[in-house]
Design brief:
Length: about 325
């Protein structure tokens, strides 16, 4: 028997969603024969047809991603049907339609830079340094002078860490009623006195827990100052040199046990392009699947917007 173990990539390749004739990066080449061998061995052990086994592998991967998305939406009281699904990463746009259908989402956004979106986000995000200090101020010690001293010290530390004397500053104060084991953070500005902090804390406490206690002492436990400088500015509009470089073709793919002819777009489609399903868009950093019952539209930045077609027929 073979030692090959199938991966999700093998399954996507076998189902026709990935091309077997191009390299994924400088040193990564897909081998459709090895993928078929790996999936085939698992299929035999499970008494399944190879294509059914490949679809099963993809369903298991999708179920794990759906579970993770439920943790950050449904389990937190957020209805995912009210939002679009942002698919990023090299392979996520392949799985996004099935995941969206499971969650009742009818719109998907696949950025042109999907495969490097996390790295792009790091480049454009503000640079930030946080400095904090435990002060434990209450009673007569809880005064404007003590608060200002702590804020000024932390502001200097944050700006020095960024090596920028003009970095923007923001302060967060963590307060509690005397005797409580937890604090609540409030943001009231860099210059504030104990009265302002108490009012902000009690308003937050009432909103969170339904009551305030004006007779109880309030303690300032921690002061935190954030220093930030803007990130790099990038132009999201697609390059004119890339427009029109797409190569169109066709190949067979499997969807829900049925073999269908899939239209392929190799390269970035020009803004304004409409993509009918079933289709796949092979970008340099990711692959976007336009599954049956979905259609795609390309906006001016190169983002591919997928819309579930049934959406237009709802009352």
């Amino acid at each position: 028997s073979s030692d090959l173990e199938p991966t999700v990539t093998d399954a996507n390749l076998m189902l026709g969603y990935l091309p077997s004739d191009v390299a994924l990066g400088a040193d990564v080449h897909l081998d459709s024969r090895l993928a078929a061998d790996a999936v085939g061995e698992l299929a035999r052990s499970l008494d399944l047809e190879p294509a059914a086994c490949a679809e099963g592998i993809v369903r298991v991967a999708n179920a794990e991603m759906v579970r993770a998305l439920r943790v950050v939406t449904v389990e937190r009281g957020v209805d995912p049907r009210r939002y679009a699904l942002l698919a990023f990463g090299g392979a996520d746009p392949l799985h996004a339609p099935a995941i969206a259908e499971e969650l009742g989402i009818t719109e998907i956004l696949c950025p042109a830079t999907s495969g490097v979106l996390a790295a792009l986000g790091l480049v454009v995000s503000p640079r930030r340094r946080d400095a904090q200090r435990t002060v434990l101020l209450s009673g007569e010690e809880f005064g404007r002078g003590q608060i200002s001293e702590a804020v000024e010290e932390l502001a200097r530390a944050g700006r020095e860490a960024l090596r920028d004397d003009d970095a923007e500053l923001a302060a967060t104060y963590e307060l509690r009623y005397r005797g409580q084991a937890f604090e609540l953070p409030v943001e009231t500005g860099l210059e504030c006195g104990p009265g302002e902090l108490r009012e902000a804390f009690e308003a937050t406490h009432e909103e969170r827990y339904g009551y305030r206690d004006p007779d109880q002492d309030v303690e300032l436990v921690t002061v935190r100052v954030s220093a930030t400088v803007p990130g790099a500015r990038v132009e999201l509009a697609g390059s004119d040199s890339e427009a029109g470089s797409v190569q169109r073709g066709r190949r067979e793919a499997v969807f829900n046990g049925k073999r269908l002819e899939l239209e392929t777009f190799r390269g970035p489609p020009a803004p304004g392009t409409t993509i009918s399903s079933p289709a796949v868009v092979e970008l340099s950093e990711s692959t976007v699947l336009v599954a049956p019952s979905w259609r795609g539209e390309v906006d001016r930045t190169g983002t591919i917007r997928l819309v579930r077609e049934e959406r237009e027929h709802r009352g």
